[in-house]
Amino acid sequence: MVGMVLIVPPQNYFENINDYKSIIDAYQHLSLTFESNHLWFIEFLIVFMLLAVPFKSGLDSQVGKAFIIRLERLALFKHGLFSLVLVVLLLRCGLKLLMPAQDNSIDNLSVSLFFLLFFMAGMCFMSSPKIWQSVTNNRSINLKWFIFSTVLFYGYYFKPDISEYVPLAVRWQLWWLVCTLVSWSGLLVLVGYASAFFKQTPKWLHTANELIYPFYILHQTVIVALAFYIVQWDASIAVKSMSLLLGASLVCILLCYFVVKPIGIFRYLFGLKSKRVVYKSLSQQGAASDASV
User: Fold this and answer.
1) I need a labelling partner for 133 at 20 to 30 A (CA). Which of 37, 116, 239, 259 fits?
2) Number of C-beta neighbours around residue 56 at 10 A
3) What is the distance between the alpha carbons of residues 258 and 276, in angstroms, rounded to a whole number?
4) pLDDT, tens digit, for every residue of 149-186?
5) Helix axes 168-197, 109-126, angle to 10 degrees
6) DSSP character for 258?
7) More confident site: 34 or 225
8) Contacts of 106 (CB under 8 A, 6+ apart)
9) With 80 as the cut, is the pLDDT of residue 281 above it?
10) Widest CA span in the chain
11) Is 272 within 8 Å of 260 (Cβ atoms)?
12) CA-CA distance, 23 to 215, in Å (whole number)?
């Protein structure tokens, strides 16, 4: 709600700047329209977290445990976990036949169920050390699948015009196919190599994990605002692109670290825990670490 009221309106202002007298005028017209814009995924996560409760109960049941055992057996094969991409493909391509739109509304099941499947796959993987170990052990195999999928993806993206020979519906299905292959193989590769090489949590990652949420809320508005001015520079596309990337990253980091993180009201508005809760949590982690040593 805070994001839709305070953070999203400036995007519409800079994108349609001739429609408003000033940014204050834009807020007067836009703040109560509750347009989610880039915050659509937060709505998804709210629904996913509610669904995670019964799904976790299901995993803890006898049926759920039997399902995890089957996944563990599949994970024993080198290509086992990657083969689950067939399930993702059936869901993605099948639902796209019924709901071809790509709008990010929760009732567009061709989008929301695709993300939900990844969310629930993560819950299944984390519920079994054997599956997690398989992701680590087979990371090189999955890397080959990722490279293969990436070649297919860019090969299709830069293909010659085949519209005279292949119907539009088929071309879209091929597009969803290559996108899904890259998504699933990329997930397995990232998790596999991360779990293999990153055995300890550095101190900076605690801060980064805490601030990633306000960073996400802020980033697109900052990008649009900076891009409005950077695009007018008399410079090359490369210079503009790098300036926007570095400038937006720096502004978001500074806002998160020096405004959101230290000020209580902003912590609350941007969804962070209070300082007291964070301090208590870190103290308990430190005590547990000392006890283990």
Assistant:
1) 116
2) 13
3) 18
4) 999 999 999 999 998 899 999 999 999 999 999 999 99
5) 20
6) I
7) 225
8) 43, 44, 47, 112
9) no
10) 70
11) yes
12) 22
CA distance 250 to 143: 32
What's the start-to-end Cα distance of the chain, in Å? 44
Query: Both tokens of residue 181?
Result: 């292959």
Amino acid at 57: S
- Whether the Cβ atoms of residue 153 and residue 174 lie closer than 8 Å to each other: no
CA 222-228-230 angle, 5° bins: 95
Alpha helices of 31-128 — where are they, by DSSP H? 40-60, 62-75, 85-98, 109-126
Distance of CA 182 to CAs 44, 177, 202, Å?
22, 9, 29
pLDDT band at 278 (very low <50, low <70, confident <90, very high): low
> Token digits for 195?
């779990």
